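Re: the 381-residue chain
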Amino acid sequence: MQTIRLIKAGKISAQRVGKNWLIDIDLVDANQVAFEKTTSLQKWNKIIREKFNRSLEIEKSKDRELIYSHLHGIGLPHERCLAFQIDNFPSKKEFEIAINRIGFPYWISAVPNPELSYLNRLSKLRLYDVNSGWQFVNKIPEKKNYKIIVSQYPDNPDFKGTALISLNGNGIVEFITGDRHYILTRGFILADPMLFNQDKIIRFSKTITVSEQRELYNLLRGIYGHLEFQHGEIDNKRSITFFDYNKEEAYIEIDKIWEDLSNCFTQKRRTDKKTIYGLPASPGKAVGRCVVLHHETVGMFNKVQKGDIIISDTTTPEMTPIMTKAAAIVTDLGGVTSHAAIVCRELKIPAIVGTREATDKFRTGQRVQVDADKGMIRLDD
C-alpha cells in the first residue's frame, strides 16, 4: 500500500489542510519539547562529500549568533541569544545565568569548530528547565571545540515555515502548523505554497490565514534569500520571528521554479489515467525506466540503475547514492523548500514533489516521461 492509500486506511495519521494532507509524523513529540536533533542538510552534504568527493555550496557553517546578527541588519524580528565561544565552555553557574537572561522556553545550538569537519552541529529544542540543557551540552563529544549558543524559543508556536526569495523578488513560502518545522524541511508533508512578487501575493496557501500571510509578506517584501520563521509567543507577545537566514545562490536561484509553480496553479492540466501532476521542484525533463521505492525500502541501492527515474514517497539523505544515479526524481510528498528539493536543484536532477499518488500509479519497470518544468509525469506509450 502506498502513501495515500495508507492515509485513507488509517495507517498513517494525517489531517486535511484545504485540499491537501498534512502528515502527522510521530517520530518525536509533535511540539518538539526537548527534541534533540542534528542538521539533516549537513547529513546530505557529508554523504555527498564522502561518496562523490564534492560538497554542496548550500551547506556552510550555520552559526546562530551570526544569523541573528544578519537578521538584525536587514530589520527582521528575531530571538535574543547568548553565546559561549569555542574554548570557553561555560560553568553550570554561567549557563544558568545565561538561561535566566534568555527566559523559558529556550533552545541550544552547538556549532563545531569549522576546521573540524568530522563534528556535527547539534541542537536541543524547546527546553523549560536549566538541567535538561546543561545535561545536553555536557554530553557533547569534544565540547571544548563547540560554540554553545542559547536562544529564545517561541512558546506554543501556531506555525512555522520556509521562504525562498530570488534576487528579482519572486518568493515561494511553505508552511506547517504547530511546532514541526523538521517535517517540512525533510519533505514529509504535502506542501501548499504561497507565491508572491514585489507587487502582490500571487497565490495564498490554505495552511494559515490570509491575514497572517499578508503580515509575513509585508516583512519579506524587499528582502531576498532563504529564511525560516515561526509565529508564537515571545516576551508575552504573539508575533512572527525569524530564526534562519542564508543568501547562498543555491537557495535563491528559484525564478524558474517560481514561474513553473505559477503556471502549474493557473494553467489547465491534462487529466487522464496515464498522467499525474505534482509541484515543479527542480527543472528539467527525462524519459526512462522507473523504479518505485519507499524511503525505507530494504535493498534499494541494488534496485536503481544509472538513468532510472526514482519514484518514492519521499527522499532522505540515506538515498543520496541512488539519487545521483537518477535521471529524475518524483515523490508523493514534499515541498519546493525541502532539503531534498534544494539538493536536487544543486545537483541538477529534475524533480517533482507532492504528487500524492505517484508510487500508487506507476510500477517498477514501466517507461515514463518526466517534465519537471510542468510538474508532469506520464506513462510513456
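The longest helix spans residues 40-52.
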